[in-house]
Specification:
The complex is a heterodimer of chains A (200) and B (158).
Chain A lengths: L1 H11 L9 H31 L20 E5 L5 E5 L5 H10 L4 E10 L9 E2 L10 H4 E2 L8 E4 L8 E12 L4 E11 L7 E2 L1
Parallel strand pairs in A: 3-7
Antiparallel strand pairs in A: 1-2, 2-6, 4-9, 5-6, 7-8
Chain B lengths: L2 H20 L2 H17 L1 H4 L5 H22 L1 E2 L18 H8 L3 H12 L4 H8 L3 H25 L1
Helix pairs in contact in B: 1-2, 1-4, 1-6, 2-4, 5-8, 6-8, 7-8
Chain lengths: 200, 158
């Protein structure tokens, strides 16, 4: 009886098949290796800098190409017009704002460091309601990434109504226990975004 | 076994196991693909693993948890809805079965995934999940009973 049920469950899932080819997986595996190597290199560089007391700053972001692994961020336009944004380091938000504007997306990018109070029921850090008119069409403009890259987002400029702008704030949060995490505020606003006044 | 053979013989079973656990085909495809990519990147070491399929499923579930935690922390200005597009219906299991699986506690779903889809024995399942073999047996019995109860009207008519 039990075996019959298990056989039924197996049978129901028989048509479920992974469609990724071996080439897809190996290409992705190469990216995994590159991530690991760049992580190792970065760790070594930071360790050396700490040991020698040298101030270290990552280079500013680049519009192209994504293969420049040390860029703080990158913006790439896909053939279908979608902008792929990858943020690797919270640096040069003005440069990223300008780059998005050049790519046809009016935007305000802000990176903020905040201290959070961890209490039950408290919200994650967010922007105060300073009169910014937010559009529900955000969900059509910001495409949820399918990859697992940290801080990767996609924007569809063609889905932005005329006169709207993207407002994108990444909070770097340190809680009372000294633990760090990030919280992201995204909105599509009518007109120009109002600079974020953080509330935590 | 080289990676190519491992991938060809394991990919569908691993996808089914993860899909039964997370309840979404698209999420399962994404996390299983990532797990296989990581396996490929570490294959010289992983090929000696006693249960590489279990490693794939475990890694895919960890990727899913990391992904979910990251998105849960983010605070969109308007509510972020899940835009996942379902695949064609003819590739999906019976919706009643998926609904029944979703009613199970996560640990029972994991046991079902490893025991039924990967055909792992109780000991290997216990090691993979970090629980006692007796707990695996108990979870499997409870999950089976719950599924049978959910599916009984259907199977009874056939």
């Amino acid at each position: 009886m039990t075996q019959d049920l298990h056989a039924l469950v197996r049978e129901e899932f028989q048509r479920v098949r992974l469609t990724d080819t071996l080439d897809d997986v190996t290409a992705r595996g190469l990216r995994v290796r590159r991530r690991r190597r760049s992580g190792s290199v970065l760790s070594a560089v930071f360790a050396l800098a700490l040991a020698s007391g040298v101030a270290l700053s990552l280079p500013p972001g680049r519009a192209e190409p994504d293969s420049v692994r040390l860029a703080a961020w990158s913006v790439r336009t896909e053939p279908d017009g979608t902008l792929q944004i990858v943020i690797r380091d919270l640096a040069d938000p003005d440069g990223l704002t300008a780059e998005l504007k050049r790519a046809g997306v009016p935007a305000l990018i802000e990176f903020k460091e905040v201290e959070a109070v961890t209490e039950p029921g408290r919200l994650a850090p967010h922007c105060a309601d300073d009169g910014e008119v937010r559009s529900p069409l955000l969900l059509s403009v910001m495409v949820r990434p399918t990859g697992t890259d940290k801080r990767a987002w996609a924007i569809r400029p063609d889905a932005m109504p005329p006169g709207t702008s993207m407002h994108f704030v990444i909070f770097s949060v340190r809680d009372a226990a000294g633990k760090s995490y990030e919280s992201v505020h995204m909105s599509l606003v009518d007109g120009d975004p109002v600079p974020c006044r953080s509330v935590s | 076994m080289d990676f190519e053979d491992f991938y060809a013989t394991s990919k569908d079973a691993c996808l089914r196991a993860v899909m039964a656990t997370v309840g979404s085909r698209q999420l399962a495809e994404e996390t299983v693909a990532e797990a296989f990519a990581r396996a490929w990147a570490s294959w010289p070491k992983l090929s000696a693993h006693p249960a590489p399929r279990a490693w794939i499923v475990r890694t895919a579930l960890n990727v899913h948890v990391s992904w979910w935690r990251r998105w849960r922390r983010e605070v969109p200005a308007v509510e972020w809805t899940d835009p996942i597009q379902p695949p064609p219906d003819d590739d999906l299991p019976d919706p009643r079965l998926m609904a029944a699986l979703r009613t199970l506690p996560p640990r029972q779903r994991q046991v079902i995934a490893l025991r039924i889809f990967l055909d792992l024995d109780t000991e290997t399942t216990a090691r993979t999940l970090g629980i006692a073999p007796g707990t695996v047996t108990a979870h499997l019995a409870r999950a089976t009973a719950a599924l049978r109860a959910c599916l009984a009207p259907t199977t009874g008519q056939e």
